[in-house]
Amino acid sequence: xxxxxxxxxxxxxxAYGWPTATRVGEQAARGAWLVAQHADTQLDxxxxxxRPLSQAVARGEVSQRDLAFLEDRLAANEGRYQxxxxxxxxxxxxxxxxxxxxxxxxxxxxxxxSASSRxxxxxxxxxxxxxxxxxxxx
Length: 138
Known about the structure:
It is a single chain. This protein has helices at about 1-15, 20-25, 25-35, 45-60, 65-75; strands at about 90, 95-100. It is mostly helical. The protein has two domains: about 1-60, no CATH class; about 80-138, no CATH class. A two-stranded antiparallel sheet has the order 1-2. Helix 1 packs across helix 4 and helix 4 runs antiparallel to helix 5 (about 65-75). Mean pLDDT is about 85; it is low at about 110-138.
């Protein structure tokens, strides 16, 4: 079902840009974000959505939080480190374990901060950290 919605969102973004609440209403705008956020089998839709969503954030039409969640979701789906710490890999002993994050003190790129060549998902949970300092303005 989401595939059909993601396909339609791709068409709408291509024709009109990001569907903001001002243009399509709050409920439809939220629905568009949810479709993009959960289009995990259609990374092209997530990639396509990031730029117009970012532009809408810059214009003050969309929450920075929505962009942070989508950027982190795309990073996790592509096997990269997330920036904001919004995506959880698992729950251990009742505590959420975030997908590995970039270390904000050493890098702002998509390169892993660990010297290890392993993918983020193969790192032990103890090496994962939430970059809470990047979430303060969301």
